[in-house]
Amino acid sequence: xxxxxxxxxxxxxxxxxxxxxxxxxxxxxxxxxxxxxxxxxxxxxxxxxxxxxxxxxxxxxxxxxxxxxxxxxxxxxxxxxxxxxxxxxxxxxxxxxxxxxxxxxxxxxxxxxxxxxxxxxxxxxxxxxxxxxxxxxxxxxxxxxxxxxxxxxxxxxxxxxxxxxxxxxxxxxxxxxxxxxxxxxxxxxxxxxxxxxxxxxxxxxxxxxxxxxxxxxxxxxxxxxxxxxxxxxxxxxxxxxxxxxxxxxxxxxxxxxxxxxxxxxxxxxxxxxxxxxxxxxxxxxxxxxxxxxxxxxxxxxxxxxxxxxxxxxxxxxxxxxxxxxxxxxxxxxxxxxxxxxxxxxxxxxxxxxxxxxxxxxxxxxxxxxxxxxxxxxxxxxxxxxxxxxxxxxxxxxxxxxxxxxxxxxxxxxxxxxxxxxxxxxxxxxxxxxxxxxxxxxxxxxxxxxxxxxxxxxxxxxxxxxxxxxxxxxxxxxxxxxxxxxxxxxxxxxxxxxxxxxxxxxxxxxxxxxxxxxxxxxxxxxxxxxxxxxxxxxxxxxxxxxxxxxxxxxxxxxxxxxxxxxxxxxxxxxxxxxxxxxxxxxxxxxxxxxxxxxxxxxxxxxxxxxxxxxxxxxxxxxxxxxxxxxxxxxxxxxxxxxxxxxxxxxxxxxxxxxxxxxxxxxxxxxxxxxxxxxxxxxxxxxxxxxxxxxxxxxxxxxxxxxxxxxxxxxxxxxxxxxxxxxxxxxxxxxxxxxx
Length: 738
Known about the structure:
Blueprint: H1 2-14, H2 16-60, H3 64-79, E1 83-84, E2 87-91, E3 95-104, E4 114-125, E5 135-148, H4 152-162, E6 168-180, E7 183-187, E8 192-199, E9 202-208, E10 220-227, E11 232-243, H5 248-255, E12 257-272, E13 276-291, E14 298-313, E15 321-329, E16 333-341, E17 347-355, H6 358-364, E18 371-375, E19 377-385, E20 393-401, E21 404-408, E22 415-425, E23 430-439, E24 442-454, E25 457-458, E26 464-465, E27 468-479, H7 487-507, H8 518-524, E28 527-536, E29 549-557, E30 560-568, E31 575-582, E32 589-595, E33 599-608, E34 611-627, H9 631-637, E35 639-651, H10 655-660, E36 673-682, E37 685-694, E38 698-707, E39 710-719, E40 722-730, E41 735-737
Parallel strand pairs: 5-6, 27-28
Antiparallel strand pairs: 1-3, 2-3, 3-4, 4-5, 6-7, 6-8, 8-9, 9-10, 10-11, 11-12, 12-13, 13-14, 14-15, 15-16, 16-17, 17-19, 18-21, 19-20, 20-22, 21-22, 22-23, 23-24, 24-27, 25-26, 28-29, 29-30, 30-31, 31-32, 32-34, 33-34, 34-35, 35-36, 36-37, 37-38, 38-39, 39-40, 40-41
């Protein structure tokens, strides 16, 4: 092997072709060194001459200090803003150089808020030795510009850019922030490269944020033209995989979402002068944020596409017409909105909504973590302002739900299954709402019809309301409703009331009146509703006795409510519940009354000594009256009076109940007993009088003083023909001897 390698190298050494190759390579290397040396000498001479000429020109022809002062004076005079410039220099390549320029948002730098900052600004002139040199090009590097579209200064700056008298303006690495109404309209992610070229009466605009100066790699790119003679602007903007947080105002306008994350692709065309128009399309991916129209409702993981257009024109002096259209769609929904504002400033709006899969949609729109919605929804709505305050809107509405399920996971507070629903409102005000399905697995059907119109009012603070003027009838039928199914809703309402009272006490809210609240102004002030609701085979629990058929009848007229509930098993012994209230006053009042006569109940009733009584027959004559503009006022003014007679009472038999009734052991007797009393209560304090406890073996009479949560009983009577006396305190959990 070694022998053959040595032979190979000897061959190369003697090979004439190889010798010529190495000789040629050596000659080229020698020539390359000479070339590099010559170029180096030329570059050095050029650099020396350039700096020498720059120094000579700077010393003999330029007053850099004067240029600095004049520039600051010119900007301050035209923009009314403070200006600071670091260094002013000159060379033949870059021209006059301004370094570290700062322009404040205010008249001074006290707030440390900048409108513009530029690391290096080069002013390039047409000639340095001619008689009439002029500014030919401005080149800016590493700049930051922040514009507020609500600030009049922005319009002035845009006017300067539109009418600038330079051949070219170039900005490299521009960080641009545009705000509108205090929110971000546009914010660069990567610095933008902007170039403006003037050709006679036209200015051509090119920009992108591509790191390679190639539009394909740009997150934002655009090109357009300003026609100075026509005072018009045309601009095309492309957005690719751009953070939607940096376009928050656009997201709110087009999607009604204040964005937190997500990306957007879009192509937008803008035309201005005369008039204004823009149109485009969008493709949004993985959008998360908060609904702009209702704070606190988060959305997450939404992807959709759409297109939009806006046009603003002036067909006559002082007159303006605006039209806006948007369409959003995905596999889950389709939404279309059209809005037109005419010369009379009255609007026409149309909405179309189709929800194809509400279950997936509600996973993205978190109205509540506990709500599950399945089904489809279709809606078409048009609104037209008439200009008449008494009949402000012409409304046409068509909506249908072919099938939908609305359930909650927290103890099944709501279980609503809609089998069919339709809602229509004609232009003449005819209203019809049909709803059929199952509530808590029990069948129901409902129909509301009548006349509806919309007016317009302005309160003393200048706030506009659009009250609903309604004259409606509501008829419904519920089959086999179970009262305890509605108790979770009652508990939620109770907790809401207690929370509101506690918050009002802690924060000491000022007094407000219901008659001034938007809810009252919009829905109740001009409402007339007549209702009849039939409840068939009512039960307290699903597996307990039938309490009979009941009917709710009544009306609500302009803030006054009068509702009556009647029914029972025995027609001879009817029971009734009435509710009367008047909110059409600065001091609303409520009157709730209940009266039962031999009501067959056979279920739990009141709490005694920490355990529930099971009562067969219930007779109640009960009244609750209160008044006030809030829950705290109602709570503090409430007055409760009445009579209670419970017959056929027994207790839950358990060790726990036995241990709780030691202070009055006779009620634990196996025989059933009756319990009756009269009561009166004011804000948690009151009394019970004519208290009677009676069975086959004992008979007790007495009274009780009530101070929530304790009831102090004093009872006396006979048990097995022997006089007995009981003095004890019932604290809600057990009875203790005094």
